[in-house]
Amino acid sequence: MKKNVFALVALAALSLTACKKENATVETDAVEADAPAADAVTYNAVAAESKIDWIGSKVSGDQHAGTIALKEGMVMVANNMVTGGKFTIDMNTITVTDITDAEKKAGLEGHLKGATAENADHFFNVSKFPTATFEITKVADENGKQMVEGNLTIKEATHGIKFPATVTVTEGDVTIASDEFEIDRTKWAVNYNSGSIVKDLGDKVINDNIKLKFVVKATK
């Protein structure tokens, strides 16, 4: 009986590990994008039909979720395949969606944006860094899954990331819908209450990894 229980626990652990690896982001140094193909066609992002979902959490298990809006962007397509693209993210649109109390909601949004001199650089300091950008450098199939690679810039720090997504190209539009993936916020100098940066925070520690999921739609 003990052997059977141990086997089940081991199998569950392996399954969780496999899931985590599949959705984890590969973070690398920034990669220079290739020049667009001569026959590449530009599709312009539709900001109203695009959004980024985020989840941040504490080690205690408490978490908050929200959205960020796309400001503008474009996708390059050649031979019915996405070959590049660049998007500008409006950091002033950081919104918390899981708090209904207006005062608490405004308080957390203000903290994330850095609304006061005291907390300006705790998270994203949007008065100094009003936008972030993501530049696609490669889209390729890997083991039957589409993988998007690109350079993410937040607070003037740029790192390469790679994540799974569903990329759909038609004659009139392009949709890029990512799976949920994670980034380590400290790589972009978002260090507030990070247990890897500050010691002895107890249950105030906020996880370094932020969960992200986005949909971008672009039209010709």
Describe the structure.
The structure is a single chain. With 220 residues, this protein is an alpha+beta fold. The chain has one domain: Lipid/polyisoprenoid-binding, YceI-like (Lipocalin, Beta Barrel), CATH 2.40.128. The chain is built from two helices and eleven strands. Strands 1, 2, 3, 4, 5, 6, 7, 8, 9, 10 and 11 form an eleven-stranded antiparallel beta sheet that branches. Strand 8 (157-169) and strand 9 form a beta hairpin. The longest helix has 22 residues, at 2-23. The radius of gyration is 19 Å and the shape is globular.
Sum up the structure in keywords:
11-stranded antiparallel β-sheet; alpha+beta; globular; 220 residues; 15% helix; Lipocalin
What's the short story on this structure?
This protein is of the alpha+beta class. It has 2 helices and 11 strands, in the order αβββββαββββββ.
The coarse overall form would be: globular
Number of helices: 2
Instruction: Using the CA coordinates, give the radius of gyration.
Output: 19 Å
How far is it from the N-terminal to the C-terminal residue, by CA? 62 Å
Instruction: Kindly state the percentage of residues in helix.
Output: 10-25%
CATH architecture: Beta Barrel
Mean pLDDT: 88
Secondary structure: number of strands: 11
* CATH topology descriptor: Lipocalin
Strand proportion: over 45%
Ranges where pLDDT stays below 50 over 5 or more residues in a row are: 1-24
